[in-house]
Amino acid sequence: MTSPLWEVFVRSRRGLSHTHVGSLRAPDAHMALRNARDVYTRRQEGTSIWVVPSSQIVASSPQEKDSFFDPAGDKPYRHPTFYDVPEGLTHL
Amino acid sequence: MDRPAPPAQPELEREFSERIAADERIEPRDWMPDGYRATLVRQIAQHAHSEIVGMQPEGNWITRAPSLRRKAILVAKVQDEAGHGLYLYSAAETLGADRSRLLDLLHEGRQKYSTIFNYPATSWADVAAIGWLVDGAAIMNQVPLTRCSYGPYARAMTRVCKEESFHQRQGFEAMSVLAKGTSAQRRMAQDALDRWWWPALMMFGPPDGQSPNSAQSMAWGIKRFSNDELRQRFVDATVPQAEHLGLQIPDPQLHRDGEHYRTGEIDWTEFQEVMRGNGPCNRQRLAARVRAHEDGAWVREAAAAYAEKHPAAA
Ligand SMILES: [Fe+2]
Ligand SMILES: [Fe+2]
Description:
The complex is a heterodimer of chains A (92) and B (314). Chain A has 2 helices and 3 strands. By secondary structure, chain A is an alpha+beta fold. Chain A has a 3-stranded antiparallel β-sheet, with helices on one face. Helices cover 66% and strands 2% of the residues of chain B. With 314 residues, chain B is an all-alpha fold. The A-B interface holds A 11, 14-17, 30, 48, 58, 75, 77-80, 82-86, 88-92 and B 1, 19, 24-27, 29, 69, 72-73, 76, 80, 136, 151, 154-155, 163, 165-166, 168-170, 172-173, 176, 237-238, 240-241, 244, 314. Bound molecules: fe (ii) ion (2 copies).
């Protein structure tokens, strides 16, 4: 039987959030963490690692990508660039 | 397992201090002094509470916005503030705090939110003034917090600051429209500035001499600039903007001093009174918050019941 799949997140340095770097197979959490260290941080790429069972990740589906993200598409006023800043004024 | 014994207390303290001295971030699983943790929980919770209570004065104007454009913008802004509250409650939870407990503390009046939200928004111009001045002051306060020593708080602030920029601009834009409008509109704009200017200055907290916890927060890298420094920056940034609008800052003592503008004396007794619960809207704001929480209880219960019946729902 193959081991479960784990998603690996690495914090490259203090102050930054953990970022997804890939996945690996391992029989348990402890091994997953050890393997992640060996697979993804051999050159000191990280100061902290998270491993999460892939089966626990809930993902949005590519098919519904449009309807899922569309609502933000027609709201340019959420961006500061939507507004004119008068010439010469700062801190706006 | 073959885990090494945890390091002794003095070593942990030394490591923590070295990290702070080197301007490195502290992350959730690091050892940290109890006082550091407690200070952060209190500050982040208070910040989160301010975001969600802060939805009220402006939310009040959504149905009465003067145009569809203004209404869409205002909805987007108030929605952002809800989001800011969520980022911040999450950051507090990385310190072991429990979100529902923090809300209880707010509702019981045992944790505070910014005094500014205890003032009423009585005209449409107030919505403009809030965006321009209150969000403007919030940005001054929050930008240095993106470099706060606690990683999750700093990262939440980075997100928040990116979003705040539109809040301030839409306020300034709405204010410009009024300031360039009819004489009635100009009066509205001036009246809003008259009422929001001083409370906005108070948002930076008591003067440095009367801010007992500031020194420790500075030493811990939670705070980067003193209350008075940030207030001064805000004044320097905002006075030219008011001049551009052709509006009068309600302070006869305001004057230029080299690169700075100096204000008259702030009425700190007013600040203390609002802190103590005696501002114009304290009771109303807290009651509205508690009511929203209670009225929403059935939604939370229904969602939990559904999740229990359909454990595999995705
Ligand atoms: Fe906000
Ligand atoms: Fe805001």
